[in-house]
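Kindly inspect this chain:
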Amino acid sequence: QLRIVESGGGLVQPGGSLRLSCVTSGFTLDEYAVGWFRQAPGKEREGISSISSPGDSTHYADSVKGRFTISRDNAKNTVYLQMSSLKPEDTAVYYCALSRGYSSGLTFWEYEYWGQGTQVTVSS
């Protein structure tokens, strides 16, 4: 059974940090590029970061560059998103997605498999 489960979301104050995890099962994860996306209420889904299948290449949206770091541990079937210096505008549901192949960008149509998302709320 193919599963993608995000976790690590929650309520954090502005300037704080969170680490999201994306745990997969049923996939041979090192065959997939992985992306993180987010969607705030009333807004379109935004691609914020991606990582190549072996983890040697990463991409970031300008909105998170320098604050977020994507990484992966294929042996643990897990991808991480370390988020620092969080801002209220980072509030959204965060999704992990898989795209078969070496690398993918930050557009949602490139990704075939999606998790259910985890809520991140940045507020004082």
User: Anything to note?
Assistant: The chain has a mean pLDDT of 97.
